[in-house]
Amino acid sequence: MTLPLSWSAVAWNPVPDSENRIHADDVARAYGFRGGLVPGVVVSAYLLHPAAVAWGEDFAARGHAHVSVDSPVYDGERFRVEVSDAAEHAYHARLVDLRDVACAHAEVSLPEVAPIPPVRRGDPPLDRDAPRPLATREALETLRDTGLGALRARWDAESEITGYLRDPAAMAPVYAMEGLASPAFVLGLSNWVLARNLHMPAWVHLETSSSFFAGIAPGTEVVAEAAVAELFERRGHAFVDLDVGVFGAADDAPRAAIRLRAIYRLRDR
């Protein structure tokens, strides 16, 4: 089996007009950043790219990753992903920007023993036009008690985030040529189910621990179910940990399990 290798590319922010205004230059600068943030799921995909190149469909079908985004990554700036401790079934990686700042890190593997997959609960689906409460501690505590609405999505070229490079042909072949959903989309489902249940004007994706159970082919309808796991505050920011299961809409078969950590309310500007 091919060993994962270090690589370099130019960062891309595919959603500068997203409802999450932290990806817009003006709002991000108001919070003290140099510009709109490249989405955390895209940064994560950069760290998982070596696995997708080396392991292909095996990674899409049974890969595991723990990714932490530690510092912003900005559109148009070159980065490098440094792979270390590479083996046939695992590696460590860190993403370094052009200022030699370590912006993110990951542990990635193909586990010998598959984790226990999530089981679909049958959560009621979300209405895209339904009103959403503002993201507060109280609103999230209510959702922890009552449950979140499920998100239904389709993997195709019209998805909000489909790829992680401006030139989609430069992605790993399993995504660029075989058409399976990239980590930017799969991990993005954890973002979107949270954002569809709450109104969050500007928020930040920080960390995911994810296990994949099957690749998602073009045209596949998926359902994301979520539950609030933890709520806490640190240095003026308000955090949520969310457990997310991704399933095939037609067969309820598990596609991914994700633990998302996000700042749902940034401290005052």
Brief synopsis:
This protein has 269 residues and is α+β, with helices and mostly antiparallel strands.
What does the model show?
- There is one protein chain.
- By secondary structure, the protein is an alpha+beta fold.
- The protein has a single domain, classed as Polyketide synthase dehydratase (Thiol Ester Dehydrase, Chain A).
- The protein has 6 helices and 10 strands.
- The protein has helices spanning 25-30, 40-55, 57-62, 137-146, 173-176, 183-197; strands spanning 7-10, 64-69, 78-84, 90-97, 102-109, 151-154, 204-212, 221-234, 237-248, 254-265.
- α2 (40-55) packs antiparallel against α6.
- The longest helix is centred in the N-terminal third of the chain and has 16 residues, at 40-55.
- The model has no long low-confidence stretch (mean pLDDT 96).
Number of domains: 1
Weakly predicted, low-confidence segments: none
Number of strands: 10
C-alpha termini separation: 49 Å
From the 3D coordinates, which CATH architecture would you assign? Roll
Q: Mean pLDDT across all residues, rounded?
A: 96
Major sheet characteristics: 10 strands, antiparallel
User: What is the general shape?
Assistant: globular
Strand order of the largest sheet: 1-3-4-5-2-7-10-9-8-6
Q: Beta-strand level of the residues, as a percent range?
A: 25-35%
Q: How many H/I helices?
A: 6
Radius of gyration: 17 Å
Proportion of helical residues: 10-25%
What is the assigned CATH homologous superfamily?
Polyketide synthase dehydratase
Structural class: alpha+beta
Output the CATH class name: Alpha Beta
Q: Briefly note the CATH topology name.
A: Thiol Ester Dehydrase, Chain A
What order do the SSEs take from the amino end to the carboxyl end, as H and E?
EHHHEEEEHEHHEEEE
